[in-house]
Design brief:
Elements (H helix, E strand, L loop, with lengths): L1 H5 L4 E4 L3 H8 L8 H5 L4 H5 L3 E4 L12 E4 L4 E2 L2 E2 L2 H13 L8 E4 L7 H12 L9 E4 L18 E5 L2 H11 L6 E3 L3 H28 L5 H8 L19 H11 L7 H23 L4 E5 L14 H11 L3 E5 L5 H8 L15 E4 L4 H4 L3 H5 L7 E4 L16 E4 L8
Parallel strand pairs: 1-2, 3-6, 6-7, 8-9, 10-11, 10-12, 12-13, 13-14
Antiparallel strand pairs: 4-5, 7-8
Helix pairs in contact: 5-6, 8-10, 8-11, 10-11, 11-12
Length: 417
């Protein structure tokens, strides 16, 4: 909305969340730090009337709205889920007037492969709409990386694929207003599978990094993988406490669920199983060392984001509590009440609350954690025996020469031995 509005295209968004709608209409972004990614504060676009949000989705169905961009969740409880997609497509199909509206509908959400043909098109056809005549339908999976301003909507390549060649051309015309690099797919079926497959590739490679660190405990796998990454066609991956977020850990499940012959995707099945075990391995290591009080820094899965979907913090804390270890979580982007509701654990203050823990796990390297002076941090670590850091390497540059606490980064030599 902000990018289109900044280019002179008036936008109205709808959501079921009162908080999100109110946040947008007050000129704020509903995701913390999104202004950093956008590169500008969008409040002036709200103040000028170029964009707004509403809870009343029916206001979006009139001839003046020629394009509908769908960006709804397609996961629930760690699995692909079509409930919101079916709901939105049902609303669109029942409100499009044949031979008058002819809107362009662009699905940006991650889709299970073949879902457009299996779910979306049948809903439209049941309402008597002819796809490609009464309504133009296409898929353009969203690409973004909110922690890197250079990886923004305009700069990132974007895949577009319509149900007809004319639709692909229309999608290109619309999205070219805010995207500089559009790549046409042969059709919607090829476009809808791209995001799942590209993230499934990353999922397998990240999981292989974790498997290597477990299989070769006497080697610093972080350094090994950096050396491997000097080859021109190999990416550098870092072992971790487990993947999180909407994309990577779910991608393999989308591909598996949509496959005509999933029995051939043995690598993806093993990837999902290993990734799901990783937080339990970490938690069991803590419990097996006799550690009784663990403080987790970061409920979010990634630094300076407020996204806890499939965060390793959730799975590590759950397993620790099952093993009888006391757990508390700190995250500056979540309230005490939110942490209790989401994770089922108490919250603690940073840095003063660190003093009660014999183990600290850093899941998300938020800036507030990285900004603390070394002397101030260490004054709160009298009881701490181990610090286990995710791939952020939050306090890697501090001196950790004494026996306590022992500072370990995921992938270090003997990090889980």
């Amino acid at each position: 909305m902000a990018n289109f509005a900044a280019q002179g295209v008036a936008c109205v968004g709808t959501d079921v969340s009162e908080r999100i709608v109110a946040s947008i209409n007050s000129g704020e972004t509903p995701v913390p730090n999104m202004e950093y990614w956008l590169g500008f504060n969008p409040k002036y676009l709200v103040d000028s009337g170029m964009m707004c949000a509403t809870l009343d989705w029916k206001t979006l169905f009139s001839p003046e709205f020629t394009v509908h961009m769908i960006a709804i969740p397609t996961e629930k409880e760690d699995k692909p889920w079509d409930g919101a997609l079916a709901d939105v497509m049902g609303k669109i199909s029942s409100n499009v007037i044949k031979a008058r509206d002819r809107p362009l509908v662009i699905i940006e959400s991650t889709l299970t492969p073949n879902k457009t043909n299996q779910l979306v098109i049948p809903i439209l056809e049941k309402a008597g709409l002819v796809v490609g005549e009464d309504i133009f339908l296409g898929v353009a999976p969203r690409r973004d990386w909110f922690i890197s301003p250079e990886k923004n909507l305009r700069a990132l390549p974007r895949i577009v694929g319509g149900t007809t060649p004319e639709t692909t051309d229309l999608m290109t015309e619309v999205l070219s207003i805010v995207c500089d690099h559009l790549v046409p797919a042969p059709d919607h079926r090829h476009a809808e599978i791209v995001k799942s497959v590209e993230n499934a590739y990353r999922h397998m490679e990240i999981t292989l990094a974790n498997q290597l660190s477990l299989a070769y405990p006497n080697l610093n796998m972080i350094e090994v993988l950096k050396l491997v990454g000097t080859k021109w066609n190999v990416n550098v991956y870092h072992p971790s406490l487990g993947t999180g977020g909407y994309c990577i850990p779910l991608s393999s499940k989308y591909v598996l669920e949509g496959a005509e012959r999933p029995e051939h995707l043995t690598l993806l099945k093993d990837t999902v199983a290993t990734d799901q075990r990783m937080p339990d391995i970490v938690a069991d290591w803590i419990a097996d060392h006799g550690l009784k009080n663990t403080g987790i820094l970061g409920l979010s899965y990634k630094g300076d984001l407020k996204v806890h979907v499939l965060s390793p913090a959730l799975r590590i804390s759950k397993r620790l509590m099952e093993r009888g270890v006391k757990v508390k979580i700190n995250d500056p982007y979540y309230t005490t009440e939110e942490i209790k509701r989401i994770a089922g654990t108490p919250a603690f203050d940073f840095p003063s609350g660190l003093s009660e823990f014999d183990c600290i796990v850093i899941v998300a390297g938020h800036r507030i954690y990285r900004a603390i002076p070394e002397s101030q941090l260490k004054s709160h670590l009298n009881q701490c025996k181990f610090i286990l850091d995710n791939l952020e390497e939050t306090w890697k540059n501090f001196s950790w020469h004494s026996e306590r606490p022992k500072y370990l980064v995921a992938g270090d030599q003997n990090w889980l031995s």
